[in-house]
Every structure is written in structure tokens, then in C-alpha cells.
């Protein structure tokens, strides 16, 4: 049965592990859900050879409008959002799979302006963030005082840049970064998406006050571990409301994306298809 309010035509930008999974789902399950895959783009077109039908391969991202998509799904790299996000919104709704791109204030502003100008929505996948709705509700009610997200995995699972790329590991477990999420995203663009989603879920704190911690742990060869710590202001007794979630996400050695995150992203895609297309940035 087709989903209500579902875009009929979907394009996928990026053909790494997550992109491959989404393309497979769209080709096999999409038709019964009312979803039609209309293009796949990858920076290296050769990666699509033999697995993506030639008719669906988009060679030039600037030509995506010719495929008339209703929704474009980005699962490539934050650079795509920086460079092409606003242009994509001219033609379709956008599902951002690299929310770390929004730590760049200029990029966030460009997306908001394009969203309002062209009346298309910016959806952001929650990825590995557990408890997104609870965080958002607490934030909206004024009850969120602090939010801290720690992501730990084996060093082989990191794709780091700048000073973090040359950071020294001082033992079996090394804290590579601890501080505002905005400061982490440029140097760990593919490993900070969960933290970026948390910053978007808690706008009262945002990228400057949500704390991100990145940990290299030699024992975590086959999983990503995400801890989310939330606290509210002190109550009448002086004690504060607090929640701590601990999520262990199985992952292939060296993989950036955990297995459960792939499934969660597919659900986010289906969810944003059911949401009304309205300007602004929306978690799904």
C-alpha cells in the first residue's frame, strides 16, 4: 500500500554504503510504496557501473531538475550541502544525510533562504540519535539545560581532517575532542552527524552549547557507541532531571555508518515522505 503524502519521484546523491542500501530499497520496495527512483549521482560515476541501471545514472548534478524529483536524498558528504544544497531546493525537497554541514552558519542560512524562496522543505535525518523527540519536547518546554553526545569507535572508523587527522592516541581509549559541536563538525564531518542532529533537536542550545565528545577506542572494532546525556534545571529539592542513553550500534570494521543507522535512515526517508512540504528545517 502506498504511503500517504509520499513524493512520487526520488533522487539519491551519493553511492557509498548508505546510498547503495537506499537505492536497493527504492528499487525493490519503492514501487509498492508509491516511490519511483529517478536518478542516482555519485562523485565517482564508475562506482555505479553494473549496479545502477544506466538510465538512472545522473552524470551532472546540476542537471537534476531534468529528472523532476519531488525529494532529493543526500548521503554523500557535507560538501554537497555546502555547494549544492540551495540549488537542489529550487527543484525539490531535500533530505540531508550530512547534518554536520549545518554547523556552518552560512550554509544553514542559505538553505533557509532557498527553502522559503522555493517553498521546499529541508528534512534532516536523525541517524543514530536516540530520543530525538524527547529532546525536542524538553527543549520546547524550556526544560533542557545541557546536552552532551559522546561517540566512540575504533580509530579506523574515523574520517578526520585538520588537527584531528594528526591527533595522537595516548592509550586504548583517547578523547580526540570535547567541546561545542560547531567546533567539531568541520574536522569530523562524517563522524559528527549524530551530534549535529542533537544540536538541531535542541535549538535553545544549538551547535554552540551542545557538547560533542569524540573518542577513539581500540576495543570497539565492530561497533559504534553513542552516549546521550541530558539534564534539566534543578527542581524544588535541588536535584536535576537527567537521562542517559547508551546505544551500541554494530558496524563492520572501519565503517563510518553502523548497521542500525542504515535502517534508521530508510525509516527517516519514509517519514519525511509523509510530512507536509513546508519551508524550514525539520528533523525526521
TrEMBL record:
InterPro entries: Asp/hSer_DH_NAD-bd, Asp_DH, L-Asp_DH, NAD(P)-bd_dom_sf. GO terms for biological process: NAD+ biosynthetic process. Residues 173-262 form the Aspartate dehydrogenase domain. It comes from the Eukaryota. GO terms for molecular function: aspartate dehydrogenase [NAD(P)+] activity; NADP binding. It holds the Pfam family NAD_binding_3. Residues 14-124 form the Aspartate/homoserine dehydrogenase NAD-binding domain. Belongs to the L-aspartate dehydrogenase family. PANTHER family: ASPARTATE DEHYDROGENASE DOMAIN-CONTAINING PROTEIN, L-ASPARTATE DEHYDROGENASE-RELATED. This is Aspartate dehydrogenase domain-containing protein. The lineage of its organism: Eukaryota, Metazoa, Chordata, Craniata, Vertebrata. The gene is ASPDH.
Amino acid at each position: 500500500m502506498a504511503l500517504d503524502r509520499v513524493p512520487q519521484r526520488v533522487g539519491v546523491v551519493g553511492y557509498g554504503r548508505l546510498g547503495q542500501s537506499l537505492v536497493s530499497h527504492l528499487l525493490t520496495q519503492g514501487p509498492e510504496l508509491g516511490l519511483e527512483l529517478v536518478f542516482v549521482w555519485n562523485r565517482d560515476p564508475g562506482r555505479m557501473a553494473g549496479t545502477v541501471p544506466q538510465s538512472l545514472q545522473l552524470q551532472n548534478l546540476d542537471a537534476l531538475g531534468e529528472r523532476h524529483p519531488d525529494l532529493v536524498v543526500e548521503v554523500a558528504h557535507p560538501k554537497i550541502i555546502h555547494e549544492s544544497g540551495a540549488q537542489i531546493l529550487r527543484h525539490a525537497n531535500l533530505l540531508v544525510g550530512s547534518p554536520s554541514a549545518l554547523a556552518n552558519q552560512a550554509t544553514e542560512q542559505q538553505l533557509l533562504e532557498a527553502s522559503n524562496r522555493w517553498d521546499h522543505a529541508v528534512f534532516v535525518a536523525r541517524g543514530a540519535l536516540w530520543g530525538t523527540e524527547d529532546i525536542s519536547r524538553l527543549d520546547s518546554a524550556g526544560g533542557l539545560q545541557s546536552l552532551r553526545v559522546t561517540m566512540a569507535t575504533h580509530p579506523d572508523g574515523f574520517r578526520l581532517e585538520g588537527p584531528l587527522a594528526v591527533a595522537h592516541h595516548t592509550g586504548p581509549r583517547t578523547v580526540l575532542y570535547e567541546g561545542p559541536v560547531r567546533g567539531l563538525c568541520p574536522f569530523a564531518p562524517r563522524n559528527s552527524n549524530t551530534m549535529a542532529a542533537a544540536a538541531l533537536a535542541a535549538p535553545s542550545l544549538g551547535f554552540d552549547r551542545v557538547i560533542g565528545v569524540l573518542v577513539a577506542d581500540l576495543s570497539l572494532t565492530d561497533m559504534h557507541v553513542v552516549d546521550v546525556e541530558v539534564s534539566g534545571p534543578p527542581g524544588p529539592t535541588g536535584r536535576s532531571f537527567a537521562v542517559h542513553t547508551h546505544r551500541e550500534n554494530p558496524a563492520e570494521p572501519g565503517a563510518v555508518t553502523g548497521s542500525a543507522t542504515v535502517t534508521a535512515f530508510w525509516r527517516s526517508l519514509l517519514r519525511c515522505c509523509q510530512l507536509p512540504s513546508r519551508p524550514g528545517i525539520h528533523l525526521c
